[in-house]
Amino acid sequence: MSSTPSTREGSTFDKKPVLSDEQRKANHTSSETKRRNRIKAWYWDLCQLVPDLKEKAPENCKRERVVLDSAREFARDTMVRRNELIDALEAQGRDPWKEFGLEVSMSILVQATAKVVID
Q1: How many angstroms separate the CA atoms of 31 and 37, rounded?
Q2: Is-contact 62 79, C-beta < 8 A?
Q3: 43-80 as b/e, with b when 16 or more CB fall inside 10 Å?
Q4: CB 116 within 8 A of CB 88
Q5: Residue 85 burial (CB < 10 Å; 0-12/13-18/19+)?
Q6: Which of the 8 DSSP states describes residue 119?
Q7: For residues 77 and 119, what is the distance between their CA atoms, to the nearest angstrom?
Q8: Would you tell me how many other CB atoms lie within 10 Å of the CB of residue 113?
Q9: Over 70: is that where the pLDDT of 27 sits?
Q10: How many CB atoms lie within 10 A of CB 89?
């Protein structure tokens, strides 16, 4: 048997300096601030992607529930419109899955069916 140290004894884990309570608190505060800033950036990104939020005032983007509700509604509306476009193509005897592949994006369907009138 070899005389290698166990995974804990003699490893780099034992050589790390022990942080003081103040250092641990500062590290935690810094990490939490970074996390919150990332979440704020994601909400802002959603505000730029969702037409209702982008058209309205930016103060709506400060309210997380408003952002999430609007994003959910936009996603639902987009899926309904996507399904309507697929139905319209199929009504023309076209197969959107063959024409556009399995990954049918909304923009491709909108461009392809721009002349289709959906009742």
Answers
A1: 10
A2: no
A3: beebbeebeebeeeeeebbeeeebbeebbeebeeeeee
A4: yes
A5: buried
A6: -
A7: 16
A8: 19
A9: yes
A10: 20
Confidence at residue 95, expressed as pLDDT on a 0 to 100 scale: 83
| Amino acid present at 36 | R
Question: How much is the mean pLDDT over the chain?
Answer: 77
Mean pLDDT for the stretch of residues 96-113: 63
Task: Provide the token pair at 16.
Answer: 């790390």
* DSSP state for residue 61 in the 8-state scheme: G
Distance CA 60, CA 90 (A): 39
Task: Name the CA radius of gyration of the chain, rounded.
Answer: 26
Question: Is the pLDDT at 113 greater than 80, yes or no?
Answer: no
Residue 97: CB atoms within 10 A of its CB come to 13
DSSP-derived letter for residue 28 is H
Structure tokens at 113: 């069916």
Amino acid residing at 32:
E
Per DSSP, the chain holds a count of helices (H) and strands (E) of: 6, 0
**Contacting residues for 49 by C-beta, under 8 A, at least 6 apart:** 71, 74
